[in-house]
Design brief:
The chain is of the alpha/beta class and 181 residues long. It has 5 helices and 5 strands. The structure holds zinc ion (ZN). Zinc ion binds next to α4. Keywords: Hydrolase, Metal-binding, tRNA processing, Zinc.
């Protein structure tokens, strides 16, 4: 059976998600939950990168998306990230979704959905909240299997090690959940 032709946008989204996945894997070096993000500029090149550094920095706000937004703002010399796309391996939490709105990012591409804490449609929908003055276009489920697997493997290993603090939730219909991304 022939697959339908893939659009250029889909191919690029997967290419960008692979870069976010590389960031997520690098978070494992500091025993951080493997979540990664990149910000892609209007010309399609990466202008910011971030990975979860909550453990590395002892900082409850050191989420991949926030660090990627800061990195991109520094690179572009502006807090406004007009025309940029934020690509992240797990659905953003309420804090990160708020940061995305404040940076005026017009588009988010996400890998796995987080049905315990996601704020891009799962629990809350901060990105498309009509009462706010900025709406974000959301594309979900890009390389979802790979993004979920990385998280599930991490929590499975932690369970074996007897460290339950991070709290592995079961994979729900929308994939893994409650990772605090
Ligand atoms: Zn977050």
């Amino acid at each position: 059976m022939a697959l339908p032709p893939r659009t250029r946008t889909e191919t690029r989204a997967e290419e960008w998600m692979r870069l976010a996945l590389a960031e997520a894997r690098a978070a494992l070096e500091t025993q951080d939950v493997p979540i990664g993000a990149v910000v892609v500029g209007p010309d399609g090149t990466v202008v910011g990168r971030g990975r979860n550094r909550r453990e590395a920095d002892g900082d409850p706000t050191a989420h991949a998306e926030i660090l990627a937004l800061r990195d991109a703002a520094r690179a572009l010399g502006s807090w406004r990230l007009d025309g940029c796309t934020l690509v992240v391996t797990l659905e953003p939490c309420a804090m990160c979704a708020g940061g995305i709105v404040l940076a005026r990012v017009p588009r988010v591409v996400l890998g796995a959905w987080d049905d315990k804490a996601g704020a891009a449609g799962s629990v809350l929908d901060v990105l498309r909240e009509r009462r706010l003055n900025h709406w974000v276009e959301v594309t979900g489920g890009v390389l979802q299997g790979e993004c979920s697997r990385l998280l599930l493997d991490f929590f499975a290993a932690h369970r074996r090690g007897g460290d339950d603090d991070a709290g592995p939730p079961g994979p729900g219909p929308g994939g893994p959940a409650g990772f605090g991304g």
